[in-house]
């Protein structure tokens, strides 16, 4: 038997009293945003090797709740090696506070090129298609400027899964 107890917080007040029918937000689609981000990459191993990471991301809004991104990611150089790649993700997201704050979940393929000192688990593979799962929050602090933080999980079929924590700024055009 399982029990679950939780507490929630409503990010926005409903526009009217009574039952809520449909959405309460007149969200503006994301549009097009080009972002640069930097942070930390941590390999999920016994030693949790880490390195500086950076990324460039292009985001396009496909409506109120859906975005798509294409990213160039450099996971940095740890003592295990380095990994870079190109990711394409589909996003489900929602906007709050007059479309100034956004929360989203993204997923998609991450085509990597690797250089590991030793990687028997991957069968010596240097180029791998991995999965990329991301949680992200963004705040539009000016008409064309957006601050974003993201937690990316790289999912591989071998022992080099990693977490990439990024923060940066984007320009909406």
Automatic annotation (TrEMBL):
Highest taxon above the source species: Bacteria
Organism: Pandoraea apista
Protein name: Outer membrane protein beta-barrel domain-containing protein
Listed InterPro entries: Enterovir_OMP, OMP/PagP_B-barrel
TM regions (residue ranges): none
Cellular location(s): Cell outer membrane
Signal peptide: none
Gene Ontology CC terms: cell outer membrane; host outer membrane
């Amino acid at each position: 038997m399982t029990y679950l107890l939780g507490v929630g917080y409503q990010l926005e007040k409903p526009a009217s009293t009574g039952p809520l029918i449909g959405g309460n937000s007149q969200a503006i689609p994301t549009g097009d945003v080009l972002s640069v981000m930097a942070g930390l990459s941590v390999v999920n191993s016994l030693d949790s090797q880490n390195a500086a990471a950076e990324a460039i991301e292009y985001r396009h809004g496909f409506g109120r709740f859906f975005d798509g991104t294409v990213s160039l990611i450099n996971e940095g150089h740890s003592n295990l090696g380095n990994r870079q790649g190109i990711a394409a993700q589909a996003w489900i997201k929602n906007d709050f506070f007059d479309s100034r704050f956004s929360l989203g979940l993204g997923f998609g393929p991450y085509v990597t090129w690797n250089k590991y000192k030793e990687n028997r688990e991957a069968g010596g593979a240097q180029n791998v298609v991995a999965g990329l799962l991301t949680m992200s929050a963004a705040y539009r602090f000016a008409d064309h400027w957006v601050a974003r933080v993201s937690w990316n999980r790289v999912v591989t079929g071998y022992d080099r899964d990693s977490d990439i924590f990024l923060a940066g700024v984007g320009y909406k055009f």
